[in-house]
Amino acid sequence: MEFECRLDRRQAAAFLTARSYRTAPATLAKLACVGDGPTFESFGRKPLYREADLLAWARAKTTGPRRSTSDPGAEPSKREGGLAEPTHREAPLS
Fold this sequence. Notes:
- The protein has a domain at 9-62.
- The protein is built from three helices and three strands, in the order βααββα.
- The chain has helices at 9-18, 25-34, 51-60; strands spanning 6-7, 41-43, 46-50.
- α1 packs across α2.
C-alpha cells in the first residue's frame, strides 16, 4: 500500500513558498473558507493538503510568460498542466 504525505496548513504554505509561490498559512485558511484555494482533505478539524494539489492550484493561478503588465499572458488552459477556469458572461442590461 502506497502512502502519500499530507501537509498541514503551515507545512503547505512553506512547501509553496519554497517553490517560489509565496503563500502564508492565513491565506490558505481564508481561501479554504471562500472556496478559491487548493483542494484539501480534513482529518477532524485539521485540513491536509497533497503536494500535487498545491502545485496544480499554484500553476493554475499563474499567468504564462508576459512582456508587460498589460499583456494577459498565455491562458492557463493553453499551458501544460494548467486548469481552465469557467467563463462568466454578464446578462445584457434591459
